[in-house]
Amino acid sequence: MTESLKEEFFENLAAVLRSASSKCRALDEKFPTEFFESNPKNIYESYVSFLRAKFDENPDIKIADDIESISISEKFANGDYQKHSDAVYRIYHDIKLVCSILIHYYSQGTRSYQMVDKFYKFASELILRECYRVGVQLINGSDADAALEESVFSRTISNDFLKISQVYQLPYAETLQTETKDGHLFSSVISRSSLDKRPKEVPHEEMHIVKILPQASSQPANRLGFVAANTSHIPDPTISPTEIMTSFLHPNWYPLPTSKWLDYGQYQSFAPSISEFKSVTDCSRKGDIWLEKVGYKMWYEMVTKEKKEKAAVEAKTEPKVETKEENNGEKEASNDAGETDEEKNATTDEEPENARESSEDEVVVMADQTKPVQINLKNLFEWQPSNEITEEDIEAFKQGKQQQLLSEILLKLKDLKRKRVKLNKISKPTSEEVSLYHRAQNILREAILLKQVKAVPKLYEKQFPVLSNNYAGGIPVVKTISTRKKKSKKAVN
Length: 493
Fold this sequence. Notes:
It is built from 14 helices and 7 strands. By secondary structure, it is mainly alpha-helical. The strands form 3 sheets. Strands 4-3-5 form a 3-stranded antiparallel sheet, with no helix packed on it. It has a two-stranded antiparallel ribbon with strand order 1-2. A two-stranded antiparallel ribbon has the order 6-7. The chain is flat, with a radius of gyration of 42 Å. This is Chromatin structure-remodeling complex protein RSC58.
């Protein structure tokens, strides 16, 4: 009985886990074969120390190539779990290890992150339920006493069930909370896994992470007749109001405090220009909204106005230029004959001038080197490593290959940094890295200046409309009742 239950247990468990991990592919993830931790609470911490010890022995080690690895699906196919006395715990151990590795690989809140966390919860609860089900069948069997004493599988089920159940627990749900002048505001539930050991981060310094605890209501529930709408026009005074959600306000109805722009007049040079006291939205976002709604339109009108003025000025100057060109055409035709004679004289005069230039260059090169060189201390003091320009950079800009040269410099810089970080020691960058950094910076600056990139001006408006209050619903209005008496028409006899 125990052997058949054992085979059926592992076959069913492998089939269900394989179909459950079809979206996150957790059973196909590789992990080191030799790693094992007997304490279920310290599985991920022990795995990190295991890898750190491997890297201390050999800094150039590669996990995928140098460490022997295996997956959960391969272990199920080879029957490795059935060979151990703690087979059920080893399945839970490998699932928790693989899910921890994937959880720390994906970003928080992504679909892959949530699917891995969902698979871990499902697999853990499935193992506990299967252990309980098989344990009940072994206890309620016909040969219960003999099976419990002799079967190793029954002891595995009971021991591993206790070991896993003492560790596995569902985490508290968490949410972000901030306080405004109108009260507390809460965000939606943060989808954070219990396996995630990374530090918790909040989007704003005034926000806090709070835990959501279920609260049992002590008030008795009303009957459906009290909650449902009244059918009669006159409500019964003894019945409580029929509002399902009493004094409910949607979060969008609250006036969210935004940052304010300050104007201190003559103290504007040193006084703060922005006040973000208890503000929910950032001042930059507020300015961007204004820029998208109003600023771009104003900027477009300014540019079009300048273009129209330039076009009008050019249109006025064009006829004058045409008249000058007609007069110059006649002069050029008369001077064509004289140009041929001047060219001949110029060729004869160029030869002695070139000879003089070459002789002058020779005098500069053959200057007396024994005299002390005068160095300008001001230039020496103001010199920086970024001022150095190599001939290779100049040739690259002449040939238009500055982008290719920049890519090669960045690749060299990345390679040098990787070699330096491999030593696992905190060290300063080498002189070669510093020179390559300054070269890349110079090339980027010159490339940007050549393109003449113009920044779009941000035109801020002080009178920016901000919604301060928003009231939902209708405003009650008192109907005016006329108190005038109607004049009665008397019959005229």
